[in-house]
Amino acid sequence: MPPIIAVLAVSLFLGSQRIAQVEYDFTTIDPPGSTMTQARGINACGQIVGVYNDSGGNGHGFMLSEGKYRTIDVPDAASTICSGINDRRQIVGRYDDAGGMTHGFLLREDKYTALDVPGAVFTLASWINNRGQIVGRYDDADGTTHGLLLSEGKHMTLDVPNATLTAAFGINDLAEIVGQYYAGGTTHGFLLRQGEFTTLDVPDATLTEVYGINNVGDIVGSYVDANGRRHAFLLSEGKCTTLDPPGATVSFAFKINPCGGLVGSYRDAGGKNHGFLATRKD
Fold first, then answer.
1. Comparing C-alpha atoms, which of 218, 245, 250 is closest to residue 231?
2. CA gap 20, 152 in Å, rounded
3. How far apart are CA 185 and CA 227, in angstroms?
4. Taking residues 212-228, what's their average pLDDT?
5. Which residue ranges form the domains of the chain, and what is each CATH number?
């Protein structure tokens, strides 16, 4: 059955405020023996999921809970990425099979379920909320990228009007969805709330990507400044805050939990990518 196309209104968010600077404590996240790490998701319990590369360059998902790392690999997959975890420890992500095809997956009670949009050539699951709703993206047979909402067993396509690419990356328990779209020669973030798309652009940025939203409406993502440098950011109560771990040359913020804990990734001066956890200083 073909996906349902969502035809919805679009409005524009123009941030007039300047980018703020707030003090955070940063903790680097690197599974033992990893050569690259991204922390992609965090739940209310502080459990973190993501992806790391081993010394052979193979990609594995992981979960970090109470200081212990667990590797998560979809059986027979060539690589696995974990992107989201809800408070019931249900995990979503993507895996590449031996033939090079990319599939979304759900890990629930130690059972893996593939999440593939009918007719799609690529499916990625990015986040799962506590209601079991999943968002992500898929590529159709023509190679066009669409946002995806999977709810109660039904696939719904999410396309920002007039965009040539849409991808959904986060959903909270209020079913508010965030992601990014491409239009007018650049990439913008978006918020989908009550059937209406709102554009989210960091002030003075040349590119904005939005990856996560919590239940109080805090939003995180990444932007590129006028000098071409990429930063992580937090948008909370109308204030946009840059979040760069010390020594980072590139940084991304992927998800934020209800307690304000943020996870993401950064590149150090030596070119190595690490995951991070950021918590606000008292």
1. 250
2. 40
3. 18
4. 97
5. 4-280 (2.120.10.30)
From the centroid of its chain, how far is CA 39?
A: 10
Residue 209 near residue 220 (C-beta atoms within 8 A): no
pLDDT digits (tens, 9 = 90+) for 164-200: 999 999 999 999 999 999 999 999 999 999 999 999 9
Planar angle of CA 197, 15, 12, nearest 5 degrees: 25
Residue 281 confidence (pLDDT): 81
Q: Please, what sign has the CA dihedral across residues 107, 70, 170, 260?
A: positive
pTM of structure: 0.92
Q: Give the count of alpha carbons within 13 A of 103, CB side only.
A: 22
Distance, CA of 211 to CA of 172 (rounded, Å):
12
When pLDDT is cut at 50, 70 and 90, the band that residue 67 belongs to is very high
Q: Are 20 and 208 in contact (CB under 8 A)?
A: no
**How many other β-carbons are positioned within 10 Å of the β-carbon of residue 180?**
25
